Amino acid sequence: MKMKKLLKLMPFYKVTQPLSDITVQGISMDSRSTGPGDLFICIHGVEADGHEYVQEAEAKGAAVVMAEREVTTSLPVVIVNDTVRALAMAASIFYGFPSEHLRVIGVTGTNGKTTITYLLDEIFRNNNQRTGMIGTIQVSIAGKTYPVKNTTPDSLSLQRYFAEMRKAKVTTAIMEVSSHALDQGRVYGCDFDIAIFTNLTRDHLDYHDNFDDYLRAKSLLFAQLGNGYNKGRRKFAIINKDSEQAKRFIRSTSQSLLTYGIHSNADIMAKNITLGETGAAYILKTPKGEIAINSPLMGLFSIYNMLAAAGAAILSGIPLTVIKHAFEMTRGVRGRFEPVREGQEYGVVIDYAHTPDSLENALNTLSEFCKGSIYVVVGCGGDRDRSKRPYMADAAMNRADYVIFTTDNPRSEDPKQIFQDMTSHLSDPFELIEDREQAIEHALKRAKSGDMVLIAGKGHETYQEVNGVRHHFDDSEVAKMILKRMKERPS
Ligand SMILES: CC(=O)N[C@H]1[C@@H](OP(=O)(O)OP(=O)(O)OC[C@H]2O[C@@H](n3ccc(=O)[nH]c3=O)[C@H](O)[C@@H]2O)O[C@H](CO)[C@@H](O)[C@@H]1O[C@H](C)C(=O)N[C@@H](C)C(=O)N[C@H](CCC(=O)O)C(=O)O
Ligand SMILES: Nc1ncnc2c1ncn2[C@@H]1O[C@H](COP(=O)(O)OP(=O)(O)OP(=O)(O)O)[C@@H](O)[C@H]1O
Ligand SMILES: N[C@H](CCC[C@H](N)C(=O)O)C(=O)O
Ligand SMILES: [Mg+2]
């Protein structure tokens, strides 16, 4: 693409030398992967500053540089006010505004994003539509999957994924939008059609200055709704009206609104709810009529996720019968309230609860039908929100009968410090077993018929990250192995 064409839509910029007729082969934001003929865009990040890597990019063959200030290079430099916005805009132009040609559904909130995207994927596929999904577990484009580093990718990768979706004849892109992504402009230039808000509770206060800053970042998805180039289509915000923060989110958008809830009077509601050990039954009440749902997904929080997904599906013209089929046939998401059954006499559940609210919800759900005692095995990640640690411990102590604290990706931190942060205020008894496998084994060996064991925090993860090294570790695999061993060699 001609550099001049790329710059056509950039409102303000200046160049250090004439661009003549430069053709850009690609866009790069990382000197390590810059290729010949690339436009290298310097991003001042959280850890590093791309302006310091211009020479490396030049050595790799970059043709032109975009920066926020003058940099030492023999290449022409395009100077803009904000390279983060410019990167998103350039990527969008380079790939032909792919998000305009897709129905894009974005899901934000502290908990439930991954689950809702998977539910939506099942609904759309049941309706014979091709989907693309971007989120915590992976990127999947018409069935082809890619591993991910982030829940929401940087704007350059995002636009590339959208372009690939178009090529694969995908009609709907369903993606998780994290608060980090919103704060770092990773979704600038992305033309969302539907934005969903799940809930907002304590998390990521290592990154955001305070809860209000976290809320402000999340609400950007709604404030930016309709800001894309395609102003023709009607945009919708889908908001959980039962959330304490619902009003703030509703106020942040000028687009059309659809609400959902259980306690508040909302557009989409669940009535006559029955929660049990095998799932949730309820009447789904919508502007398109009512339908009875009998889903294998457990817990009240799962109903909220289904209501949000139903809202987006209805706005996309999908019939209630298709939505019902998806909710009833779903096998759930890996590591989200996933039962482990190896013939043992008690229940074992793997769940990705890694915030105080989700841990509380998961334990509450178990306590609704557990006839015996509840065991929980849980830890807190290192190099992540330190302030949530005592609250995680409280959620475990308040709702479980036996608590075993253990490691969950200590990363560069000393696990002892993490335990100290979690437990220094506690007076009631708990156990502390640093080795996660031993902690799980301890719980599984003690549980009796009628008890429930919740192994929380890692869900689908297949690693334990210690000092920058990821060791293979899979809660589900470990629990199965221990249960099998116990069956073969009962003690
Ligand atoms: C703290 C944080 O959010 N960091 C994210 C951020 O990195 P950063 O700003 O520090 O950027 P950087 O990679 O150090 O460098 C800045 C620039 O210099 C360039 N560079 C750097 C080094 C070099 O040799 N050459 C070079 O050109 C980089 O390519 C980049 O353009 O931008 C990167 C690109 O988008 C992200 O991959 C990275 O996520 C890191 C890996 C991360 O762990 N982030 C977590 C906290 C996160 O974002 N989590 C949320 C989900 C949270 C949730 O569960 O809700 C997510 O969306 O994943
Ligand atoms: N609607 C909800 N409300 C509260 N807790 C929920 C809800 N949905 C799921 N959870 C809990 O949160 C955990 C994570 O769910 P999920 O992966 O869907 O959320 P997420 O928002 O994608 O999380 P992350 O930000 O880590 O990617 C689940 O394992 C469950 O314990
Ligand atoms: N997306 C979350 C995942 C946390 C999962 C938990 N296992 C941990 O490592 O802390 C985060 O990056 O904060
Ligand atoms: Mg997720």
Could you explain how this protein is built, in words?
- With 491 residues, this protein is α/β, with parallel strands linked by helices.
- The chain has helices at 3-7, 54-59, 83-94, 113-126, 155-167, 179-183, 211-223, 246-251, 300-315, 320-329, 356-369, 389-399, 415-423, 436-446, 475-488, and strands at 14-15, 26-28, 38-41, 64-67, 77-79, 103-108, 131-134, 139-141, 144-146, 172-176, 194-197, 236-240, 256-261, 268-276, 279-286, 289-295, 338-339, 347-351, 374-378, 402-405, 431-432, 452-456, 463-466, 469-472.
- An 11-stranded mixed sheet has the order 9-8-7-10-6-11-12-13-14-15-16, sandwiched between helices.
- α4 (113-126) packs across α9.
- The chain is globular, with a radius of gyration of 24 Å.
- Bound molecules: ligand UAG, adenosine-5'-triphosphate (ATP), 2,6-diaminopimelic acid and magnesium ion.
- The site of magnesium ion (MG) has 6 residues, from α4.
- Keywords: ATP-binding, Cell cycle, Cell division, Cell shape, Cell wall biogenesis/degradation, Cytoplasm, Ligase, Magnesium, Membrane, Nucleotide-binding, Peptidoglycan synthesis, Transmembrane, Transmembrane helix.
- Residues 335-459 form the Mur ligase C-terminal domain.
Structure, briefly:
The chain has helices spanning 3-7, 54-59, 83-94, 113-126, 155-167, 179-183, 211-223, 246-251, 300-315, 320-329, 356-369, 389-399, 415-423, 436-446, 475-488, and strands at 14-15, 26-28, 38-41, 64-67, 77-79, 103-108, 131-134, 139-141, 144-146, 172-176, 194-197, 236-240, 256-261, 268-276, 279-286, 289-295, 338-339, 347-351, 374-378, 402-405, 431-432, 452-456, 463-466, 469-472. The protein has 491 residues and is α/β, with parallel strands linked by helices.
